[in-house]
Design brief:
The complex is a heterodimer of chains A (about 600) and B (about 90). Chain A has a single domain, classed as Sodium/glucose cotransporter. In chain A, about 70% of the residues lie in helices and about 0% in strands. A two-stranded antiparallel ribbon of chain A has the order 1-2. Chain B has a two-stranded antiparallel ribbon with strand order 1-2. Chain B is elongated and about 60 Å long. Chain B is mainly α and about 90 residues long. Chain B is built from three helices and two strands; from the N terminus they run H-H-E-E-H. Chain B has one domain. The chains are: A mainly alpha (about 600), B mainly alpha (about 90). At the A-B interface, helix 5, helix 10, helix 11 and helix 13 of A face helix 1, strand 2 and helix 3 of B. Chain B: It comes from Chromohalobacter canadensis. Chain B: Pfam families: DUF4212.
Chain lengths: ~600, ~90
C-alpha cells in the first residue's frame, strides 16, 4: 500500500470516530451545548482539557523550537504547564462554584456591570480568534502535506470537519471527541519517540533517554549533542541564557496566558462538583505532561539525528573535532526524507561553494577562513516532529499515525476555541445585552450561527495568513494574560475591587500590551508600520514583545487596585457573592439555574 | 450564624495559606531552580548537564503535577474538616 493510501486510512478512520461521537452526543439543550450537561468525570475531563489545550503549536512546533533553542526555549515547557497550577489554585474551583456558562458572564456578575462583561467579550474574541487562525492554518498545512493536496484545499477540508462536529455537538460532543483525539495524539507522539530513544540510547522511555548515555559514543546524550553543535559553531544546547529578566517574564506570560485563556477555563464548568474541578486540573496536567516530558527528548534526539545525518563521521566518538576537515554528506546521497521535505520548501539546500556537499554550520562562526561560503542547509523547525518517523526509518503506518495525531491536535483546539467564541457571542452579547428575552432554542441557533461565522472568518484568514504565525500565538497569550486573568483572580480574592477598577484594569492591561507589541511588530501587524526594529537592543529593559503580557498583567492588577481604592466599595450583595464563590458547598445546585 | 461565619473565615484563611505555600514552591522550581539559580546548581551533574537544566525541562513539570494533586487532596480534607464539602 502506498504512503498516501495509508495516510488516508489513518486520517479517515480517526475522523469517522470523531464525527460518530459528535452525532452520538448531539447537544439537545444550551446546557449540553455550553457545559456538556455538567456531568463529566474528572479524568475524562482532564483528557479533554489535554486535547483542547495541546494545539498544533504543542504537537508540531514545540519540539522543533526546543531543538533549535535548547535550554533557552525551555520557557515553552514551563510556561505552558505552569499555568495549570494557577488555574487549579486560583481560578477553576471558584469559577466552577459560581456555576455560570462563560467567563464574561462571571466578570459581568462579579463586577455588576454590563460594560465589564462587554469588555471581557472583546478580550475573549480577539484572543480566541487570533489563536484559532493559527490552528486552522496549521491543520491546513498538515492536511496538504499528508493528503497531497494544495494548501487551500487542505484548509477547506479542515474547516468542513471542524464545522461538523463542533457545530453539531457543542461542548458535549466536543468533550468526548476530544477524549478520542487525546488518545490519538498521544499515541502518535510517543511511538516514534520511543523508537528513536531506543535507537540512540537503548532506553525505551524518551524522558529518561534524554539524560541517558548515547549508545554510539558512550557519552551522555546531552554532552554528545553539545559537542556536536559547538564543533559546528552553534551555541551549546544546554548553554545558560544571559537575559534572565526576559526569560522569567516570557515564562510568566505563557503561564498567566494559559490560566486566562477562556476555552480552557470553560472546561472546568463541565464537572459536577468543585472538588472535581480541582482533580480535573491535576489530571489535565498529567495527560499534558506525558507529551511535555517527551517533547524535550524528541527535540534533542531529533537535533542530534539531523546533525549526524549531515556529518556521518560525528555519529560515534569524536574528540577535538575538526570541522574544517569534516566530510559532510554529498547532496546526491541525501536520504529520502530530505528529498520529500524539499518538495514542500521547508528544507532548502543551496550549494554555495559548488562542491556538491551539504555544508551545515552556524553562519555566525568564522568558517569562511576555511574556504566555506556559508551555511547551505536551512531546516524549518516545524517539520521535526512530522519528519521524525522518516528520519528514524520507521514503518509507514507510523507516518499515517503522526498525520492523524497532528490533525487531532490542531482540530480539537480549534473546536474548543470556536466554542468559546460562539458562547461569548450568543450568551454574553446576544442574551446578555442585545436580546435578554431570547428563547433557549434561539440562543442555541445563535451559538451555531456565530460558530459557523467564526469558522468562515478563521478559514479565510488562515488561507490568507497576514504572515505572522508566531506573533499570533504571542498576541493571543498576551491578551489573555494582560486582560482576563488579573480581573478573574481579583474578582475571587478581593472583595474590594469594584466595577470601575475592573474595567480600567482590563482596558489598561490590554492597551498597554497591544501597543508594546505593535511598536515592534507593526500596527495591527501590517508589515512596515513598526516604529522600532524588533531586536534585543531596542527592547525596553530587554523585554521582548513576546514577554510583555506579564508586564501588562501587572499593569492591570495595579490599575484595578488603585482605581478601586479611590472609589466606592462594591455593594453588599456583591461582597456576599464573592463570599459564596469561596465555599464549595452547593455547587451541584448552582448549575441548575 | 456567627459560628458559621467564623468557621467559613477560618476555612478561607487556611485555603489562602495553602495556596501561598504552593505558589512559593511553584515559583521556586520554575523561576528559581530552572532560571535564576541555575548557575548555583551547575555543579550538580545530571546526565551530561546540570540540575538547573533538568528542572527547566522536566523537574518543574513534575513538581507542578505533584503540587496540584497535593492541593486537591489537602483542600478535600479542609472541606471535610470545616463541614463545607458537597
Amino acid at each position: 500500500m502506498s504512503q498516501f493510501a495509508i495516510n488516508i486510512l489513518f486520517v479517515g478512520a480517526s475522523f469517522a470516530i470523531y464525527i460518530g461521537i459528535a452525532i452520538w452526543a448531539k447537544a439537545g439543550s444550551t446546557k449540553d451545548f455550553y457545559v456538556a450537561g455538567g456531568g463529566v468525570h474528572p479524568i475524562t475531563n482532564g483528557m479533554a482539557i489535554g486535547a483542547d489545550w495541546m494545539s498544533a503549536a504543542s504537537f508540531i512546533s514545540m519540539a522543533g523550537l526546543i531543538a533549535a533553542g535548547g535550554y533557552a526555549n525551555s520557557t515553552f515547557l514551563m510556561g505552558w504547564t505552569g499555568g495549570y497550577v494557577l488555574l487549579a489554585l486560583l481560578l477553576a474551583p471558584y469559577l466552577r462554584k459560581f456555576g455560570k456558562f462563560t467567563v464574561p458572564e462571571f466578570i459581568g456578575d462579579r463586577f455588576y456591570s454590563r460594560t465589564a462583561r462587554m469588555v471581557a467579550v472583546v478580550c475573549l474574541i480577539v484572543a480566541s480568534l487570533t489563536y484559532v487562525i493559527g490552528q486552522m492554518a496549521g491543520a491546513g498545512v498538515a492536511f496538504s502535506r499528508f493528503l497531497e493536496v494544495d494548501a487551500t484545499t487542505g484548509l477547506i477540508i479542515a474547516a468542513v470537519v471542524v464545522f461538523f462536529y463542533s457545530v453539531l455537538g457543542g461542548m458535549k460532543g466536543i468533550t468526548y471527541t476530544q477524549v478520542a483525539q487525546y488518545i490519538v495524539l498521544i499515541i502518535a507522539y510517543t511511538i516514534p519517540a520511543v523508537f528513536i530513544s531506543l535507537e540512540l540510547t537503548g532506553n525505551p522511555l524518551p524522558p529518561l533517554g534524554l539524560f541517558s548515555d548515547h549508545s554510539a559514543s558512550g557519552q551522555p546524550l546531552l554532552a554528545k549533542l553539545n559537542e556536536v553543535v559547538t564543533a559546528l559553531g552553534f551555541d551549546a544546547y544546554t548553554a545558560m541564557v544571559d537575559n534572565k529578566l526576559n526569560m522569567v517574564l516570557f515564562t510568566l506570560s505563557l503561564m498567566i496566558g494559559t490560566a486566562g485563556l477562556p476555552h480552557v477555563i470553560m472546561r472546568f464548568f463541565t464537572v459536577p462538583k468543585v472538588a472535581d474541578a480541582r482533580w480535573s486540573a491535576g489530571w489535565a496536567l498529567v495527560f499534558i505532561g506525558l507529551l511535555y516530558l517527551t517533547a524535550p527528548a524528541v527535540a534533542s534526539m531529533a537535533r542530534l539525528n539531523l546533525m549526524t545525518t549531515i556529518y556521518p563521521d560525528m555519529a560515534g566518538q569524536v574528540e577535538n573535532y575538526d570541522a574544517a576537515a569534516a566530510n559532510p554528506l554529498a547532496y546526491e546521497d541525501r536520504p529520502e526524507w530530505i528529498r520529500t521535505w524539499e518538495e514542500t520548501g521547508l528544507i532548502t539546500f543551496e550549494d554555495k561553494n559548488n562542491d556538491g556537499n551539504i555544508q551545515f554550520y552556524n553562519d555566525g562562526a568564522s568558517f569562511e577562513d576555511r574556504g566555506w561560503e556559508g551555511n547551505e542547509l536551512s531546516v524549518n523547525n516545524d517539520i521535526l516532529v512530522l519528519a521524525n518517523p522518516e528520519i528514524a526509518n520507521l514503518p509507514s503506518w507510523v507516518i499515517g499515525l503522526i498525520a492523524a495525531g497532528g490533525l487531532a491536535a490542531a482540530l480539537s483546539t480549534a473546536a474548543g476555541l470556536l466554542l468559546a467564541i460562539s458562547s461569548a457571542i450568543s450568551h454574553d452579547l446576544i442574551k446578555g445585552a442585545i436580546n435578554p428575552g431570547i428563547t433557549e432554542r434561539g440562543e442555541l441557533r445563535a451559538a451555531r450561527i456565530s460558530m459557523s461565522v467564526a469558522i468562515v472568518v478563521a478559514t479565510y484568514l488562515g488561507a490568507n495568513p497576514p504572515g505572522f504565525a508566531a506573533q499570533v500565538v504571542a498576541l493571543a497569550f498576551g491578551i489573555a494574560a494582560a486582560s482576563l486573568f488579573p480581573v478573574l483572580m481579583m474578582g475571587i480574592f478581593s472583595k474590594r475591587v469594584n466595577n470601575k477598577g475592573a474595567i480600567a484594569g482590563m482596558l489598561s492591561g490590554l492597551i498597554f500590551t497591544l501597543v508594546y507589541i505593535f511598536i515592534y511588530k507593526g500596527w495591527f501587524f501590517i508589515p512596515g508600520t513598526n516604529n522600532l526594529a524588533d531586536t534585543p537592543e531596542n527592547w525596553v529593559l530587554g523585554i521582548s514583545p513576546l514577554s510583555i503580557g506579564a508586564v501588562g498583567a501587572i499593569v492591570n492588577f495595579a490599575v484595578a487596585y488603585l482605581v478601586s481604592k479611590s472609589s466606592e466599595e462594591p455593594p453588599r450583595e456583591i461582597q456576599e457573592l464573592v463570599e459564596s464563590v469561596r465555599y464549595p458547598k452547593g455547587a451541584g445546585g448552582a448549575i441548575n439555574h | 450564624m456567627a459560628d458559621e461565619k467564623t468557621n467559613a473565615e477560618a476555612y478561607w484563611k487556611a485555603n489562602v495559606r495553602l495556596i501561598t505555600g504552593c505558589l512559593i514552591v511553584w515559583a521556586l522550581v520554575s523561576y528559581g531552580c530552572a532560571i535564576l539559580l541555575r548557575p548555583l546548581l551547575s555543579s550538580i551533574p545530571v546526565g551530561g548537564t546540570d540540575l538547573g537544566f533538568w528542572f527547566a525541562q522536566q523537574g518543574s513539570i513534575l513538581t507542578f503535577i505533584g503540587l496540584i494533586f497535593f492541593y486537591a487532596w489537602k483542600m478535600n480534607r479542609l472541606d471535610k474538616q470545616y463541614g463545607l464539602e458537597e
